From TrEMBL:
Protein name: Endoribonuclease YbeY
The protein's required cofactors: Zn(2+)
Organism: Duganella levis
General function of this protein: Single strand-specific metallo-endoribonuclease involved in late-stage 70S ribosome quality control and in maturation of the 3' terminus of the 16S rRNA.
Chain segments annotated as transmembrane: none
Cell compartment(s), UniProt: Cytoplasm
NCBIfam families named among the record's database cross-references: rRNA maturation RNase YbeY (TIGR00043)
């Protein structure tokens, strides 16, 4: 991230279970590593009930998922070049802890990956087809390696 990529970051622990281990300075470091432009982001940790409600209401899927990204200026055509990316990134603590255990990763490793994944979504990256998925996974893997984390797809 270059110096011009200003970050305004809000971190919310609606579900406080990870507040002691997944600290604001760690989150800021992970977010900044994945930013390619200025951003105004909120990272919110929720429980399964809130995660399921959000996923059902906004995606029509009635289950809690690991990460949801709400990119507010995605697709806007008349934004100035220096307009910040604006997004809320919601992480479901129950799902990310379960996945970390299943994938034999630490909660920190998995959380770093999901935050980077969400930040990339906020900036317009997607994985709707194989080509997009390959590109996005490559960027995630590279950023995580720079931060000292293993390839999440290995």
């Amino acid at each position: 991230m270059s110096a011009k990529n200003k970050l305004t970051l809000s971190v919310q622990y609606a579900d406080p279970r990870l507040q002691e281990s997944i600290t604001r300075p760690k989150i800021r470091k992970w977010v900044q590593a994945a930013l390619f432009a200025p951003a105004e982001l909120t990272i919110r940790f929720v429980d399964a009930a809130e995660g399921q409600t959000l996923n059902r209401e906004y995606r029509g899927k009635d289950y809690a998922t690991n990460v949801l990204t709400f990119a507010y200026n995605e697709g806007e055509e008349e934004l100035p070049d220096d307009a910040p990316t604006q997004a809320d990134i919601i992480l479901c603590t129950d799902v990310l802890e379960k996945e970390a255990a299943e994938q034999k990763k630490t909660v920190e490793e998995h959380t770093a990956h999901l935050i980077i994944h969400g930040v990339l979504h906020a900036q317009g990256y997607d994985h709707m087809d194989d080509e997009e998925a390959t590109e996005m996974e490559g960027i995630e893997t590279e950023i995580l390696a720079e931060l000292g984390y293993a390839d999440p797809y290995a």
